[in-house]
Specification:
2 copies of one chain form a homodimer.
Chain A lengths: L4 E10 L2 H11 L10 H7 L5 E10 L5 E10 L7 H9 L8 E7 L2 H4 L8 H9 L6 E5 L8 H13 L4 E3 L12 H19 L4 E5 L7 H10 L4 E5 H4 L1 H8 L8 E4 L12 E3 L1 H12 L3 E5 L9 H12 L9 E5 L7 H8 L4 E4 L1 H4 L5 H16 L4 H7 L1 H10 L4
Parallel strand pairs in A: 4-10, 5-6, 5-13, 6-7, 7-8, 8-9, 9-11, 11-12
Antiparallel strand pairs in A: 1-3, 1-4, 2-3
Helix pairs in contact in A: 6-7, 6-15, 10-11, 11-12, 15-16, 15-17, 16-17
Family (chains A, B): Belongs to the RuBisCO large chain family.
Keywords (chains A, B): Amino-acid biosynthesis, Isomerase, Magnesium, Metal-binding, Methionine biosynthesis
GO molecular function (chains A, B): 2,3-diketo-5-methylthiopentyl-1-phosphate enolase activity; magnesium ion binding; ribulose-bisphosphate carboxylase activity
Chain lengths: 404, 404
């Protein structure tokens, strides 16, 4: 095996950042170094981490320096899965004072062992025959406790408005009133009816839940029942569960990663895992075709630089790994479409819940307002121009405001 | 189904804490409430969360109050697993500003659906025939990259010193030089040899790794190979993987939970999941027989109140759920045993790496020093008294210090 290495960048603080990087390089690999006899050093050298760089950012009041450090790890230290990777580069280190895991760069040989998205941006565009525009997704207003008929009504209303995808609420686990496989079959029928009316296909993302050692079987039963897409709470189940679903040739439908619980990791400046890595790079290599993440708009928004870097990590060329669709979510209404387009470009999914269901004309009109906003912005028109032709868009702009 | 409820406590800040609790109670369950028609309210009421209490702790400079809020959720909102639970009480909420998940109280009916530890404190004491003392565990100095023979030598040295358990290094995934099942068989043989010499059994905890949908099968193969115990990186693989191992009747050996990655969740005062819940309650109900966590001693220690609460959560009576062994780890040397005993009592495992391998007389003498320290403290003697009879303990106290 050639000596290929994984580069890991941490944000931390220390009296001497380079010394800290060197200590991590030893402590997270062979455990000790300078006290080893020469023969043992020769034997363990192929497993030894290495301090690569230290970049000071600021001097703190206590005299320590806060900054970025990069450590390289031999790929041979890991099995080809995210539990091995995260345990090996951040397991006990995460408990060792102020340190945040911010970035990982992989050699191609290591990446090839991961499934990556089965469909990715291009595959999903192909399935929907929707090339040169952002896609549009709608979320059920709520799912928990609702009678099946209410969900069918909600699904139909959203589909008739022309959305590309409809997703379950991510908290929808206890679904005895509208069971998983029955939902998939029922919404498939409705989607065929609405497509006959509108000419537009709509994909339904059903929330995959259950015992972790039965998920692949359950996903296959979903495929057999005609499922279009799976919603999956990746952080609640663990990255390896996504990996094994994406690697399963029989689970041949796109997987949509929900960011539930991500806020337990990313918001602190001192601890955790940065969003561009957590919801970007790791979700992509583990196989998410679409990744939801907090939008940089609204009250409790994700930092914009982080959100843009996250989207870049999902879409930038990466040897042999397909691109994942960024889905900036929360606080999205039709008036925000020009801003979304300016920030995230063509390859994104516009995702709305309240911005569709809260439309004065109902969910179908709410979806239509988004469809018209996306068409306008993609064609280089203003929302004001489009609203002249679209009473639904005009009503949305009246309610929520936004660049005309 | 009776209306049993799960009580969830968060640490957060708001202008009005009770209003925030009420908003969470709706937002994390049925989504909206006041705008629903009366018939819909009647239908969804059984799924509605409720604000239970708000306890102010301090007034912040921005005029907001920081404090604890408790929200109750109907058990019917969840399937009986931790992904459903965490997604339902903290999924999107974790991304909604400053909020930390600090405690959960379960009704008995919900607890019964979780496996809990198969052996727990009493079961493990029975297997080791070690009743009225803390147990002693030793960690390999390092595992990664070492030839099998080196690991055998390390195992034998630790076992001869009289430890109750020896565990793998948690980063030991890439084990081609000493494969999992071969290690289990080889160390079993050595354990039988050392038991013949010392009269004391020693259990080996092998690091369970691999694809998540194959873990139960791999664990069964380990049991067939004679495994005594499994080490498991619960947070890297997800709580549900532990749950399914613990619930599997064929995996009839204790499971030791490693806290790797826990520091990505708990250290921030504003975000994440508090350790007593993360490494205490959740590990226990999911089925960990032993739980490692950062000790409250040393440089980068866990806050002592948190560490003690964590141990309490592992050992306090809980309807139908066995007690898990607390294993406060890092920075442990024989001189700390009186402190450990005063803090964590009889039902703990004293766990040392450097404090055993770094002994001037080597690992066997290092383990012997701990054995003698534990025997002394349990019998009500001082370490100074015991050191008169134990040159190994005397040497350890000389090197590391500690209460004589």
């Amino acid at each position: 095996m050639s000596d290929q290495r994984i580069l890991v960048t941490y944000l931390t603080q220390a009296k001497d950042l380079h010394k800290k990087a060197a200590a991590i390089a030893v402590g997270m690999t062979v455990g000790s170094w300078t006290d080893l006899p020469a023969a043992k050093q020769a034997e363990l050298a192929p497993y030894l981490g290495e301090a690569v760089s230290a970049t000071p950012l600021e001097t703190l009041e206590n005299g320590e320096t806060r900054g970025l450090i990069t450590v390289s790890y031999p790929t041979r230290n890991f099995t080809h899965d995210i539990p091995s990777l995260l345990t090996g580069i951040f397991g006990k280190l995460s408990m060792d004072g102020k340190i945040k895991l911010v970035d990982i760069t992989f050699p191609e040989s290591f990446l090839q062992a991961f499934p990556g998205p089965k469909f990715g941006i291009d595959g999903l565009r192909g399935r929907l025959d929707a090339q040169n525009r952002p896609l549009l997704m709608s979320i059920f207003k709520s799912c928990l406790g609702l009678p099946f008929e209410d969900l069918k009504t909600q699904f139909r209303a959203q589909a008739l408005g022309g959305v590309d995808l409809v997703k379950d609420d991510e908290i929808f686990f206890a679904d005895d009133r509208a069971p998983f496989l029955e939902r998939i079959r029922a919404f498939k029928e409705i989607a065929q009816e609405t497509e006959a009316q509108t000419g537009k296909p709509v994909l339904y993302a059903a929330n995959l839940t259950g015992p972790i050692n039965e998920l692949n079987e359950k996903a296959k039963r979903a495929v057999e029942a005609g499922a279009d897409c799976l919603l999956f709470n990746v952080l609640a189940f663990g990255f390896d569960a996504l990996h094994r679903l994406a690697a399963d040739p029989d689970v041949n439908i796109p997987i949509m990663a929900h960011p539930a619980l991500a806020g337990a990791y990313y918001p602190s400046p001192d601890y955790g895992i940065a969003t561009p890595l957590l919801l970007g790079t790791l979700m992509r290599i583990a196989g998410a075709d679409l990744v939801l993440f907090p939008s940089p708009y609204g009250n409790v928004a994700l930092d914009k630089t982080e959100a843009l870097q996250l989207a870049t990590n999902l879409t930038t060329p990466l040897e042999g790994v397909r691109r994942s669709f960024p889905v900036p979510s929360a606080g999205i209404h039709p008036g925000l479409v020009p801003q979304l387009y300016a920030d995230f470009g063509l390859d994104q999914i516009v995702n709305a819940g309240g911005g569709i269901h809260g439309h004065p004309g109902g969910a179908t009109a709410g979806a239509k307002a988004f469809v018209d906003a996306i068409a306008a912005v993609t064609a280089g028109h203003t929302l004001g121009e489009a609203a002249n032709q679209s009473p639904e868009l005009a009503a949305a702009l009246e309610k929520w405001g936004g660049a005309r």
